[in-house]
Amino acid sequence: MKDGIDVLVHEVGPRDGLQSIQTIFPTDAKLEWIRAEAAAGVPQIQVGSFVPPKLLPQMADSADVVRQAIEIPGLTVSALVPNLRGAENGMAAGAHQIGVVLSVSEAHNYSNVKRSVQESLDGFSEIVAHRDAHPEYKDVVISGGLATAFGCTIDGPVKVADVMRVAEEYLKRGADRLSVADTVGYANPGQVKALFEELYRTVGTDVSVGAHFHDTRGLGLANAFAALEAGVRELDACLGGLGGCPYAPGATGNIVTEDLVFMLESMGLRTGIDLDALVACREIMERHLTDEPTHGAFATAGKPLGFQPATAA
Ligand code: ZN
Questions:
Q1: Which end of the chain is more exposed for a tag (fewer CB within 10 A), N or C?
Q2: 1 is a domain residue
């Protein structure tokens, strides 16, 4: 954890948000957005994903975006990858953190990356080996993703035991951290608290664990709170809740960064983020949108009278 921060807010909008909408942001627009959020104090941003451009044309410039984003002082730059090829490209571009995609649900994993869970885990080992074979990549953090950890649009319920098995496999294979995702917005707060408690019992509390929630059914912030209660201190979010869910037309995207930061700061948890500057970033992002709606209650309602953020101004 960076100094002076109690909870790490990881902005994933330039990846999760942009990959879910029609509008393709030019590289400069992405960087304008990323620079503005970094200036507002956001410590870590997922700036793209290294996937074939045929599949996600929105992410075709990820190497360029990473190369320029790592020049921003103090910002941790993360990128998502589905396989070794993506990881090679991400590390070559200079990403500080590589998030590897794997869905705990077999059917979802196959539909997403055309591999079994076992094959994805073997691919993860190759990525760790690639990092370890190159001294210049020794500081790259490799994060094991557990998508569809709370349910799957193809398989329905996902067993907690399966989540634990994949988490243990990741750590055995050299993961530096874990990222547990409610990819399709199925989770509820009781389930979230129970799953993270079980995860810490299984892997120990020394492992750094992030949580990734979508607000598809309105429970995003409640789920984030439940994860906090269980001990999670790294949360993904997206400015203006940009994005959606490929399985639920019209649905909202990730939990809203501004609302999450407001919740954390109100609770006395320091994020290092200036809320006014963060809200101002919405306008920068919205300038490049075409039809896509943005979300968020804090930006509409503003601060309560007498509000004191935990992060010193
Ligand atoms: Zn997501």
A1: C
A2: no
